[in-house]
Write a structure and sequence with these properties.
8-stranded mixed sheet, about 260 residues, about 35% helix, binds 2-acetamido-2-deoxy-beta-D-glucopyranose
Length: about 260
Amino acid sequence: MARALLYPCLLFLASTATASLHLQCLENPPDLTAGGNEVGQVVDNLAGFTAYVAGSIHSNRAIVLASDIFGFEAPLLRQIADKVGGAGYYIVVPDFFNGQPYTGDPSINITQWIDDHSPVKAAQDAKPIFATLKKKQKSIIGVGGYCWGGKFAVEIAKMNEVEAIVISHPSSVVVDDMREVKCPIEILGAQNDTTTPQKFIYQFVHALRKRSDKIPYYGKIFPGVAHGFACRYNSTDPSAVKTAEEAFALMLDWFGKYLK
Ligand SMILES: *[C@@H]1O[C@H](CO)[C@@H](O)[C@H](O)[C@H]1NC(C)=O
Ligand SMILES: *[C@@H]1O[C@H](CO)[C@@H](O)[C@H](O)[C@H]1NC(C)=O
Ligand SMILES: *[C@@H]1O[C@H](CO)[C@@H](O)[C@H](O)[C@H]1NC(C)=O
C-alpha cells in the first residue's frame, strides 16, 4: 500500500546521487572542535571496532549508541553518551565507519559512501560487539540510534541481540521493519523531518499496533524541529536544547523501563 510512498533517506540519496545535498541527513554537520569535555575514552579494539566508551564498567546493563553518518566523534553525541553513562549504564559508541565518517566534504561521493557503509551490513558486522559485551557480563543491552544509526538499531532488533531500542529521527527505516523488530521500540520523530516525515512515524506505529505478536512500542513526533534535532541541535539555542533534552529523557525512560 503506502510502501511506494516511502523514500528512505539513504536509498533516496543513492538513487539521486550527489544532487541531493539539501537532504536533512546531510545538514548541520557537527562542530568537531566543540568537544574536549568528555569523561569517557576511546578504545582501539572492542571486538575489532574503535569505540568511545564511558559509564559504569561494572554495570550489567550496556547501551550501544549508533551515530548518524557524521560518526562517533561528534561532541554532542559524546555528551549524550556521557549522560547515559552517568545514569548507571556502560555505554559504547562504536566507530562503524572505520575512521571514514561522512564529513560534508563535497568531494565525497555520497552514493559511493552509502554503498560502502550500509547500516544493514553494519548490523551484521556488529554482532561481535554484542557477543563481547555479553562476555563482559553486560547481559542486558539496549541500542539508541540516530539517523543512519536508527536503521542500524532496527536491524539489530531483528536479531534477538538486545532488549530494547530507541530510534531518533531515523533514516532508511521502512514499515516492513516494524513487523520484524523483536524487542520494545521507541521512535522519536520530528514534525519537520523530510527524511522520515511524520507520516512515516504514524505508519510505523500503525504497523506495530497491528502486529499479532505484540511488542511494546512508543512513538512521538516533536513539534517545530527537523531531522537531526536529538543529536545535531544548535547548542546555543535554548529551545533546540530543550527539545533535545526531552528526547534524551524519553530515551533514558525507555531503557530504564525495559533494560532490567
Ligand atoms: C559516485 O559513485 C557511484 C557508485 O559507485 C558511481 O556510479 C558514480 O558515477 C559516482 N559519481 C561521481 C560523480 O563520481
Ligand atoms: C517547521 O515547519 C514549519 C511549517 O512549515 C515552519 O514554519 C518552521 O519554521 C519549521 N521549523 C523548523 C525548525 O524547521
Ligand atoms: C543557534 O542559535 C542561536 C541562538 O538562537 C542563533 O543566534 C544562531 O544563529 C543559531 N545557529 C545556527 C547555525 O542556526
